[in-house]
């Protein structure tokens, strides 16, 4: 799949909103019959547009009330050392997101923890002991304003000459 049409975009938008839709519900919402809708979803999956499906969990209800943003500074930025850090970070369940960043720092992590005490212990015993870590800087979330994982598909719509209202009709 090299290009997406309005039906593909509508499918992606609906699945971002509710990944548990049945194929019949999805087909009805996007204005297709079930078989072509199913084929399009499969093509979107095989084309890598849809990477997977998952439940969005409430971290507070699960006892993970602390969300920390941690910038790790590497001692050296060579290819082998960076790959070792990446591999070690991927293996840590408390790290829910990691980005290789520009500017000051090497990696920006999002880390969840039960409370500040547990985070402090985790930072000292795990993060500071990662390979090649020179320093870390932490900020804490004081409240979540937006955590919507849905991607804005408006640039695709604009390329197709469609407005948001037009998309809802598909």
Question: What can you see in these coordinates?
Answer:
With about 170 residues, the chain is of the alpha+beta class. It contains seven helices and four strands. It has helices at about 5-15, 25-30, 35-45, 80-90, 115-125, 155-160, 165-170, and strands spanning about 65-75, 95-100, 105-115, 135-140. A four-stranded antiparallel β-sheet has the order 2-3-1-4. It starts with 5 loop residues before the first helix and ends with a helix. Mean pLDDT is about 90; it is low at about 165-170.
Brief overview:
39% of the residues lie in helices and 18% in strands. By secondary structure, it is of the alpha+beta class. Strands 2-3-1-4 form a four-stranded antiparallel beta sheet.
Distance between the termini: 20 Å
Q: Determine the oligomeric state from the structure.
A: single chain
Total of helices: 7
Unreliably modeled segments: 163-170
- Average per-residue pLDDT, rounded, comes to 88
- The total count of strands amounts to 4
Largest sheet: 4 strands, antiparallel
Shape: elongated
Fraction of residues in helix:
25-40%
Order of helices and strands: HHHEHEEHEHH
Radius of gyration: 21 Å
- In what order do the strands lie side by side in the largest sheet? 2-3-1-4
Proportion of residues in extended strands: 15-25%
Helix/strand structural class: alpha+beta
């Amino acid at each position: 799949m090299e290009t997406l049409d309005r039906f593909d975009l509508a499918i992606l938008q609906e699945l971002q909103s509710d990944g548990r839709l049945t194929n019949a519900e999805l087909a009805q919402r996007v204005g297709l019959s079930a078989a072509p809708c199913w084929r399009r979803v499969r093509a979107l999956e095989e084309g890598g547009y849809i990477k997977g499906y998952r439940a969005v969990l409430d971290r507070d209800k699960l006892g993970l009330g602390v969300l920390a943003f941690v910038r790790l500074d590497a001692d050296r930025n060579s290819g082998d050392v960076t790959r070792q850090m990446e591999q070690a970070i991927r293996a840590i369940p408390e790290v829910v997101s990691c980005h290789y960043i520009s500017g000051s720092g090497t990696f920006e992590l999002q880390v969840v923890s039960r409370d500040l005490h547990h985070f402090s212990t985790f930072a000292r015993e795990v993060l500071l002991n990662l390979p090649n870590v020179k320093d870390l800087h932490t900020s804490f979330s004081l409240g979540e304003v937006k955590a919507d994982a849905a991607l804005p598909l408006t640039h695709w719509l604009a390329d197709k000459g469609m407005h948001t209202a037009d998309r809802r009709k598909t």
